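Two records follow; treat each independently.
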Amino acid sequence: MGKSAAHILFILFCQLWSVSFAQNKKAVADSLLNLLKTDKQDTNRVLHLEALSETYQKTGEYKLSLQYGNEGLLLAQKLNYTNALAYCNSNIGVAYLKIGDYNKTLEYTSVALNIHKKHGDLIGIANAYNTISNAYIMQGNYAMALEKSLLSVKLKERSNNKKNLASGYNNLGIIYYQLNNFPKALEYHFAALKLKLENGKKREIASSYNNIGTVYYSQKNFEKALEFFIKSIEVSEKSGDKSTLASSYQNIGNVYSDMNKEKLAVDYLERSLKIKMESGDKRGIASAYINMGQLLKKEKNYAKNKKQLLLALDIAREINAKDLIRACYEALSITETDLGDHKSAYEHYKLYRIYNDSLFNEESSKKTAQLSAQYESEKKDNEIKLLNKDKEKQAAITEAESKKQQIIIWSVVGGLLLVLIFSSFIYNRWRITQKQKLIIEQQK
């Protein structure tokens, strides 16, 4: 069933409104806040709260996004407004994803998914699977992430929804990056970027630039990495996307750290941490602490480095981000070895191996490889089917053209025969007339 007509019109209105205020999303939020002042406790208020939650999500103000999302959710429940219930839950799920509470992301997005399934809202279902995939990525559960991401992509490909397909390709790029399959990661990130450029959404374009830069950074191609991170920053600043801006600042800081440009590295890492602290992005804060710790290690400030890593570990445990927990244990093991604390170093190394094995165990690797191969096979089969359909269509067109030409030829031949018969008839009539005329003249 999907969204109601009123809901669709309102969302379209908000999208047009967002384009008009592309350079100043704060104006959109202020306008929605003004509408709330005169709203009654009805469906219009729910829609305004939903739009406000989504707007604050896009500006990186996740606490406000949760505040208005939850208010909209409570009113939607009271009014039994099921369409809005789905989208309020979706907004809340994404906000929790951004601040690093992945269990809450799965909880709220699963509710949204069930409502979308009841309504037969294919795009809503696909987007919910995409968010769930993101949560599993952040938790380091790459097999489940790939499974949900492929479900999302297949639905979007089936409906030929290019606008939403970009986010699906984006997730596949991230998953393959985490699995160290960098060529495949770039393939999907560039596929996502192409669609995003066609859609013209700056916020999403910036995210793709950042993701592509991350892959190049992992390949030690610092020049290409910086090129894409800088592109990401330029677009993020124009769109007001604080989340991607903070991520790109952090990534540039890491590049400069590897290039032994410590002052520049510190500058960018501090810029990133400031934005993440303001938005309450727990995962981002933990990641920034790890990077700052690594920089301190290069300066041989091991004690302060360890302090930063322990802060990061506390947050990573809180949000159950297995990849960050693993990174903390590995870094702590190396730092404690440098400090001469070999007992603690060994304990942390064992924990690192446990988390590393859980992230990349044999069963999980087999499942991701199987899912990937199955998807690629289905994709090729679909391409062959489409190619065969095109060939059949072309053959049908050729046959139709051939028949048409035959009809024209026979029509021309038939026309000529008629002309000949008619001409013969006229000629015979003329001869008879001439004979009769001659006989009459002779009689005279």
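The next record belongs to a different protein.
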Amino acid sequence: MWEIVAILEALGYTDRMIQSEFSCPNAFVLSQFIYAQRNEFPRSEIVNQQPIELTSKFREELEIFITQFSHSFIYTIPFIIQLILDYWPTDSSNDFLPPDLNYLFTIVTMASLITSSGFVQAIGRRGSFYMGLQDPIQANRICIPILWIGILTTILLSTFSIIFGFYQRIAVTTQA
């Protein structure tokens, strides 16, 4: 039963979320309920299934790995581009970015990746949990508000960054 609690917590469920979504007081009570349902799905059906060929299993696992890797790797592309541009042999007259903007570009890229990846991960975890339960309506009910919060957060951070950039430009101009 503790394994079920660990899985629920690994999926990102807190006691408050469990209480609001499942009307259970905490993760332990929900895990007791899930554990009590184990007889509904007899293990013999799983054991008596036809054996899967090793090559098709390997191929499925490879496809899952490539999919998961590409989902994570996509977030590194802006950093790779920045690294290439930093080491690209140029003279100072044709730099891609002025040296004082390199740090700003890196900070903005990191903030963007943290924001988007955090919300994408939250949507992915919640969505796959409810889709695994074959409840797309609940998945929509949970994931759409997370999407809107992510969009709003990104817009607010972008607005703040633009205002900060204008302030920096005004401050540099008045000092000169």
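Discussion point: The radius of gyration is 24 Å. How would you locate this feature using only the token line?
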